[in-house]
Amino acid sequence: MCGILGVVATTPVNQLLYDGLQVLQHRGQDAAGIATAEGGRFHMHKGPGLVRDVFRTRNMRNLVGNWGIGHCRYPTAGSADNAAEAQPFYVNSPFGLMLAHNGNLTNAEELKQDMFLQDLRHMNTNSDSEVLLNVLAHELQAASTKYQVDAETIFTAVAGVHRRVKGAYAVVAMIAGYGLLAFRDPHGIRPLVIGRNDTPQGTEYLVASESVAIDTLGFKMLRDVEPGEAVLIDTHGNFISRQCAERTVHAPCMFEFVYLARPDSVMDGISVYETRAKMGEYLADKIRKTLPHLAIDAVIPIPDSSRHSAMELARVLNLPYREGFVKNRYIGRTFIMPGQATRRKSVRQKLNAISQEFKGRNVLLVDDSIVRGTTSREIIMMAREAGAKKVYFASASPPVRFANVYGIDMPTRGELIAAFRNDDEICAEIGADALAYQDLDSLKAAVRAVNPAISQFETSCFDGIYVTGDVTAAYLQNMEDVRSKPTHPQSDDSDGHEGGQLDLNLVQGS
Questions:
Q1: How many CB atoms lie within 10 A of CB 156?
Q2: Mapping DSSP to helix (H, G, I), strand (E, B) and coil, where does residue 299 land?
Q3: Residue 271 bridge partners (DSSP)
Q4: Least enclosed by CB within 10 Å: which of 24, 242, 250, 293?
Q5: Residue 368 has pLDDT above 50, yes or no
Q6: Is a pLDDT exceeding 70 seen at residue 1?
Q7: Torsion sign over Cα 424, 427, 433, 436
């Protein structure tokens, strides 16, 4: 899960890209980067940390040009503490390319070998995004005639990427001297939306991971990028698109609606807010049927992504809804923090219980999901310490039992509390007095109720079914083996929060 952004405007885009990444910060807090273009020259600054920490005034002044891309990183492939893996990535041949990517490639290792042995391309990091960039560069080179770049060449290259690359990917890329390219994998697993802004100087376009970036930057929602589709916007604002995949299946990631996306976003025609409210409605029905004996004094959400589910659950069950936790918004999201110890420590820094809402009460805590169980266990302990008599726990999504390989940090079953436990064992493990999970069919129904046109979803972390069809038991075992190896400390020769400034003179592709 990362946040990506691409803009073609009539005025300088550095502030637009910065503001857009701030809005998408929830999608990645490990690193950030912006690349802009002025004629045939790229300008880039990137580095580790939050958007506000990576960019200073001096960096922004150097990011000149009316079109560009941005990225905020959450690591799933590569190394979490390697500053070199901040995006965008750059290659100078052919034409000069910048690329930012959200997702995860499931055949990255195979592609690396092909790049080295057949395509004669060198990879400088462990990031699968750099692999994707080099595949695109090779396909562009193969499709071009006398190194001429045009729309036909670009769409042919994207079709080649779809044939070679497997997994989940939403991409924004810059082609020097030509324009902005955006495309989405043939299953539409990771989201990508398009916005438009008509100005007296001409039409501007914005491509982003979530519609919230389009709204806050003053653009109007145009539509989603379809699975397998490529969208090309040249430097003059001309817009052209084409379906580049031979076969598509629209199966957006269910966890986007459960947890990852902001509630004010709309993706694939689905309002995240409405979906989460529906999840609460279905979860209330499950509790009414399976746990009718519970004497619940108050329904309390775990802020923030479960709030709307909890409110609707309380309404349906005719129970008091109360805010029992105050969130420190200056602490990162614990789900995306690497390492159990870091997550456990962060929970106490991130949330504080309001004792008046717990003392002497039986409370039902509602969360969006239970992944590793660390956060749930700590929160239940906090509720008891605040004086709760009974602590019941409800998850707006089903048990997370399988690894996710498409860009979410659920890589090994051994780290998932539900992988080898039944509901009673999970309840005991997290220290709850009762536990209720959403059913998978109900979760799907909650999303379909908002947009019936979407009939299939990527739900592998719940049911172990991988929609791309290439994820084998051997692949998953290898992933577990790699993750279990001890990591080696990085050298101290990185630039820290200063990032790296890149100013490249490029020959225009014409």
A1: 17
A2: strand
A3: 266
A4: 293
A5: yes
A6: yes
A7: negative
What is the Cα Rg of the chain in Å?
Answer: 23
Place of tokens 């004792």: 355
CB of 207 closer than 8 Å to CB of 216 = no
- Would residue 461 show up in a list of annotated catalytic residues for this protein? no
CB 63 within 8 A of CB 499: no
Q: What gap in Å lies between CA 5 and CA 3, rounded to an integer?
A: 7
Distance between CA atoms of residues 315 and 321, nearest Å: 8
Structural element, H or E, at residue 89: strand 89-91
- Could you please report the per-residue DSSP string of 32-54? EEEEEEETTEEEEEEEES-HHHH
Q: What is the pLDDT of residue 510?
A: 27
173, 230 Cβ separation under 8 angstroms = no
pLDDT of residue 346: 66
Interval 393-414: pLDDT, tens: 999 999 999 999 998 877 688 8
- pTM for the model stands at 0.89
Q: Work out the angle between the directed axes of helices 374-385 and 423-430 (0-180°, nearest 10).
A: 50
**489 preceded by a cis bond (ω within 30 of 0):** no
User: In this model, does residue 360 exceed pLDDT 80?
Assistant: yes
**Residues β-bridged to residue 103:** 169
Residues 10, 27 contacting (CB under 8 angstroms): no
Read off the pLDDT of residues 300-330 as tens digits, 9 standing for 90 and up: 999 988 999 999 999 999 999 999 999 887 6
Q: What is the full DSSP assignment across 249-292?
A: ----BHHIIIIIS-TT-EETTEEHHHHHHHHHHHHHHHHHHH-T
Single-letter amino acid, residue 249: V
Who's near 327: CB < 8 A, 6+ residues apart? 303, 304, 350, 351
* Phi and psi, residue 482, nearest 5°: -65, -40
Q: How many residues does the chain have?
A: 510
Q: Work out the average pLDDT over 138-162.
A: 91
Task: Give the list of residues 6+ apart from residue 45 with CB closer than 8 angstroms, or none.
Answer: 33, 34, 54, 55, 59, 62, 63, 499, 500, 501, 502
Intra-chain end-to-end CA distance of the chain, in Å: 35
Catalytic residue among 2, 72, 244, 253: 2
Please spell the DSSP secondary structure of 245-261, one letter per residue: -SS-----BHHIIIIIS
Burial class (CB in 10 A: 0-12, 13-18, 19+), 239: middle
Give the pLDDT confidence score for residue 51 in this predicted structure: 96
- Take residue 259 and report the two structure tokens written for it: 């947890």
- Beta-strand ranges (E) seen in 144-214 are 167-175, 179-184, 193-199, 202-208
pLDDT (average), residues 278-297: 97
pLDDT tens across 101-114, in order?
999 999 999 998 88
**Helix, strand, coil percentages, rounded to 5, for the chain:** 35, 25, 40
**61-65, 78-82, 118-122, 363-367: least confident range:** 78-82
Closest to 18 in 3D by CA, of 58, 65, 52: 52
Q: Any idea which of 25-29, 197-201, 255-259, 487-491 has the lowest mean pLDDT?
A: 487-491
